[in-house]
Design brief:
By secondary structure, the chain is mainly β. It has two helices and 30 strands. It starts with 6 loop residues before the first helix and ends in a 9-residue tail after the last strand.
Length: about 350
Amino acid sequence: MVKGPTRRSFLSLFPASLAFASVNAAQKRRSPLPQTGEFVRFADPLTENIVVRLTHPGWQSLLPSVRNRFISSKERFLVFSSNRGGAGLCPWLVDLRTGRARLLGETKDLAPRSLCLDARERALYLLDGKALKELALSNLRVRTVAEDVEDFTVDLAASHVLFLKNGQLIRVGDPNVVNKDLNGATELSASPSGDSCLFERNKRADYSELWHVSLKAAAKPVLLAKGNIWNFIWNPDGSSVLFLREAEVNGVQVPEIHEVSPEDGVERKVERTNQFAAFAPNGNGSVFVGASRSKAQPDIVLMLRSPQRELTLCEHRSKDPASVAPVFSPDSRRIYFQSDREGRSALYAVSVERLVEPTL
């Protein structure tokens, strides 16, 4: 029987700096695994990498959309949704240094994927039913920004909030409607530069349309891609949009990472994936993290963009791989994801600071 490559031989395919990571991981395995606050550290049974469970699996804990900012780059905290205490889903904040979580406010019908920090990380925006609300993190005061909102996005470049209402794109504080031609739009996402916006249309099982619209003028939306595509996210430099597309390879359906530039509308294949159900880029777009949908290998995987190399970080073992939603911290030092591996969905983290170059 022919054996596959060992973890040691696989690491040799990565840059020399990764060899040190295997030594460091071995040293960590000899150390005790302490608990900080609610955090619990354990060695992954597959790779022996250290994984930290951030929230107790006795409650449901959910991450926001990977397109939103929900991890602080300044104060080391993460916002999430949870039904802790037996109530419905509400916004919570966990201190990533102490492991302590605190309730930010009560909501009636929270959309868990909607949580998004503003550019200064002083306010949290969310959808409670169809009400767009702003929660000040300093004093936890809440104000309703707009009613009957279908979706919203935060423009981190200009600190603006854009929302969708009756097919119209509106900027908070602006008396003028930004665009009136977004009927049927869902999943808004402002570009890193703040001068354009992505959205989906006609989304249904195994089909979606990805559209782009400029915010500089009352421009008409432009179709960028369509078909069996999902998980669209801006490349960090804003030059293109990344997404997953189902492709047939030798009679087998395989997810591929594709990208399309709004400038020319040309779609290109980036890489074929290891059965990614969800993915996200690091701070400079040089590395991807993905959640595999393979039942035999339900793993969190790192993929170098060029040259293509893959490394398994740990198992996620989620019943719904698409919901795992792995994402890099703003400095690319850690991976955060969610999984129901222990019953209810809980949040987890794994360090990649020895594997990925830190980003600003």
